[in-house]
Design goal:
alpha+beta, 7 helices, 13 strands
């Protein structure tokens, strides 16, 4: 019975993700958006630190915007004996292939969902963003979600203070055969809400570095304590019948 329940959960999760892809991005729900960005073939979440003491939003908070966010509602589970709120030490790093269409579609849909009225002009601009050509580059973005705002400023300084030169030997894509593709360019977080951006060459020695048969790790080490390592299967990164990464 436990095995059957487990299979059912997997099938429901898969069906939910697949259903979102069958709908136009302008019809995606907030659940579809969050699933694509944070728990899909193109977006993974790496959590560090203690468990949260309150329900967490699944939307990404970049290093820039996290520093301005305030937590005003802390539930009873987050109370210590003194009656004061117990802050969470958990940090969530949302690592996404921004050069993949579904990720850009999810960011675009988030913006539309925030509008109080339909905005056809904005929809057209966002469609151009989604359709942008990434034939030469692979772009991975990293957004940060925190609960304790005391942790936001040090993280913001780490991401905004980083440079391409400092990260070049410590950030790479690694294929299942062990070959590594090192960082070409780093772009610090801006107000666009998409986090820090890591740019790689898409084509190496005349051939795409990645193919549908590959699995790939994104690895980024900022210091001894902070290392990102997320894995993706390219065979699952199909969108509208095309490999998207």
């Amino acid at each position: 019975m436990k095995i059957l329940i487990g299979v059912f959960v997997v099938l429901v999760t898969f069906s939910s993700a697949a259903y979102a892809q069958k709908k136009p991005w302008t019809e995606w729900t907030k659940k579809d958006v969050d699933k694509t960005l944070n728990d899909s073939a193109w977006g993974q979440t790496q959590s560090e630190g203690g468990q949260s003491q309150q329900p967490q939003s699944t939307s990404a908070v970049t290093a820039t915007t996290a520093a301005r966010r305030e937590d005003s509602n802390i539930g009873a589970a987050g109370r210590v004996e003194s009656g004061e709120a117990k802050p969470s030490t958990q940090v969530k790093y949302h690592v996404r292939f921004l050069s993949a269409k579904p990720v850009r579609a999810a960011f675009a849909r988030n913006l539309l969902l925030a509008q109080t009225q339909p905005n056809e002009a904005l929809t057209g601009q966002l469609q151009s963003f989604i359709d942008r050509d990434f034939n030469d580059y692979i772009v991975v973005s990293v957004g940060i979600e925190v609960s304790d705002q005391k942790m936001a400023m040090p993280l913001m300084r780490m991401f905004t203070g980083a440079t391409t030169e400092a990260l070049q030997k410590n950030v790479y894509l690694e294929r299942k055969d062990g070959k590594k593709l090192f960082l070409m360019e780093y772009r610090a977080p801006t107000e666009d809400g998409m986090g820090a951006k890591f740019v790689f060459q898409r084509v190496v020695d005349g051939q795409p570095f990645l193919s549908e048969s590959d699995s790939v790790h994104f690895v980024a080490q900022f210091n001894e304590k902070m290392k990102l390592n997320t894995k993706y299967k390219l065979s699952e990164m199909l969108y509208d019948g095309k490999l998207e990464y």
